[in-house]
Design brief:
Length: about 280
């Protein structure tokens, strides 16, 4: 009897630790909203010297807005697939969840547009007609050293550009070497691919939840869904690895946490579907 109690207690402890780990990951993702805002705000202050126009807010703060919308959507999925029992997802609760999801999807799609717009701006780079050091003397030009990373163009930094081809943004006084812009383009493409893959993941996941609430998520549909999402998650993992090698630590860390977070959501959905199938059999 005591052995059974010990085993039961062990299972409870492991389950409690699992939940602590899961919600710690969720809290870390919530903190990343602030971290991305700080990063975006610094970059926006450098690129948009005259202030960020309303129409370009999403381009300037796409990372932080995107992450905030995703955190809210993650909360909705957690409520639907784990916290709330099926009979509670009715009436105003259902409408509140659907409304929050719709709100998040608007900003997620808008953020995807922001990534595409940023990518488009990098395809319209112009040659610099004056020397970099002449522009440095004016004191109002910036040197790009990485994605969303700008420093004032000075006499010291312009000297390093003397023997390299220099390009500038069409709509901002920002210049950099061809090699630097090429690296940034690859990172921008990674942003677009990553955002697009996540849009497909949540579209399929939302459809899975919709079917499950109607007890129509069959084992066959679940398998097809898992295969497609598995390919998308693999694409997202490649994006995270690329950021880890060529991007910033924050981008890599955020991508890794999101993969872990949605592993929890997928696990919730798997257990939910298995319980429903067992009850109906």
């Amino acid at each position: 009897m005591s052995e059974v109690a010990t085993l039961a207690g062990s299972r409870v402890n492991r389950y409690a630790l699992f939940r602590v780990f899961k919600y710690t990951v969720y809290l870390l993702l919530a903190y990343n909203v602030y971290a991305f805002f700080v990063e975006n705000h610094a970059a926006a202050g450098a690129v948009f010297a005259d202030g960020v126009q309303f129409g370009r807010v999403i381009e300037a703060y796409n990372d932080s807005i995107d992450t905030l919308a995703w955190v809210l959507l993650l909360l909705v999925f957690e409520l639907e697939t784990f916290v709330l029992p099926d009979e509670k997802i009715r009436g105003w609760v259902k409408w509140a969840l659907n409304g929050t999801s719709a709100f998040c999807y608007v900003f997620i799609v808008y953020s995807f547009y922001g990534y595409v717009a940023e990518m488009a701006s990098l395809t319209n780079l112009l040659p610099v007609t004056q020397s970099a050091c002449e522009l440095a003397g004016r004191g109002d030009w910036l040197l790009v050293v990485g994605q969303d990373d700008y420093v004032p163009l000075t006499a010291e930094s312009c000297a390093a550009l003397a023997d390299t081809q220099v390009l500038r943004l069409a709509d901002a006084q920002v210049l950099g070497s061809v090699e630097t812009w090429s690296d940034i383009k690859w990172l921008a493409w990674t942003d677009v691919i990553n955002a697009g893959a996540w849009l497909l993941v949540v579209a399929i996941l939302a459809f899975d939840v919709w079917l499950q609430l109607r007890h129509q998520l069959s084992d066959a549909v679940m398998r097809y869904s898992q295969v497609i999402k598995g390919l998308l998650y693999f694409t997202l993992l490649l994006c995270a690895i690329y950021w880890g090698i060529n991007g910033s630590f924050l981008d890599f860390w955020d991508a890794f946490l999101w993969l872990v977070a949605f592993f929890f959501i997928e696990l919730n959905l798997f257990e939910w579907q298995a319980e429903t199938s067992a009850e109906e059999s």
